[in-house]
């Protein structure tokens, strides 16, 4: 069945779509400027580090924190929620909402491999290793962790969104960046196996977080194999998962990318997906880089240019690197854009 992009649906159909869905009483979509916290939560780097973040900055609405699965579940039956508990406590105390991610992929704990998961070593020269997302030895343990995380945090009002992991090397959905890895991983399962695993993992987040939006950080899982979009199996796999998740979890499944720059446009499929679905789905962006740190070279323009591109594409929030959030020269811009993004998102 052909999916009609939401921007082409009539107001009447869209109104019915909004009223008929079960998420009407769920948490509001995340909106505004979000500080992308420097570093990550580790067992030795929790409250002291977290307290230094710009919680009191009035020009940001939210904070994004991250940690690794190997830290949050160092052993099969042991969880360490210390850092995430502290982050949510700080968010509540300072009137900010929180976005969080626990990263699997390259951050999978050793006990998962000991339990039988394949340890695939990347062929890109980094020596990084990750499990195969479609193997049950990984899937059953990762989805079990997701459910435990949901039991602990879904009911916390400060938690406004979670970022999906387990579909790739980190939170973005790419499994391979090089042709050598693409060839090897295709032989081990490839795009069709990735699609099956992605649907299972997304379903686990949906079950674990019934009131909290869950976001897929879109990136094509394998390097392009064919310049013709209708023949590119990796692109088609990404599209299949996105369209399925939007249809299955209306108003709950969030779409974002981690590559917002001044020239972001719909020629890149993840941006197109956000544009097509932003009217009824949670949607946002993470900046590609910090303008303060490299003068806007990677972002190809000013911070204002980048955020404007994100709003034009339908983003309701933008995760901005902490160096830019702390920059005194950007406070007026951040204040104005935080208001603009909240206005775009609506009540």
Question: What's the topology here?
Answer:
Layout: H1 11-19, E1 32-36, H2 47-50, E2 62-68, H3 69-72, H4 82-94, E3 97-103, H5 110-114, E4 120-121, E5 129-130, H6 136-153, E6 159-163, H7 179-188, H8 190-208, E7 214-217, H9 233-248, E8 253-260, H10 269-277, E9 283-287, H11 291-294, H12 303-312, E10 317-321, H13 322-325, H14 331-345
Helix pairs in contact: 6-8, 8-9
Structure, explained:
The protein has 347 residues and is α/β, with parallel strands linked by helices. It has a single domain, classed as Alpha-Beta Barrel (TIM Barrel), CATH 3.20.20. It is 40% helix and 14% strand. The protein has 14 helices and ten strands. Strand 7, helix 9 and strand 8 form a beta-alpha-beta unit. Helix 6 packs parallel to helix 8 and helix 8 packs parallel to helix 9. The radius of gyration is 19 Å and the shape is globular. The N terminus is likely disordered.
Shape: globular
Q: Which second-level CATH architecture applies?
A: Alpha-Beta Barrel
Main β-sheet, spatial strand arrangement: 1-2-3-6-7-8-9-10
**CATH-defined topology:** TIM Barrel
Rg on CA atoms, Å: 19 Å
Q: Which regions have little confidence, pLDDT < 50, spanning 5+ residues? A: 1-24
Main beta sheet strand tally, sense and closure: 8 strands, parallel, barrel
Overall tally of domains: 1
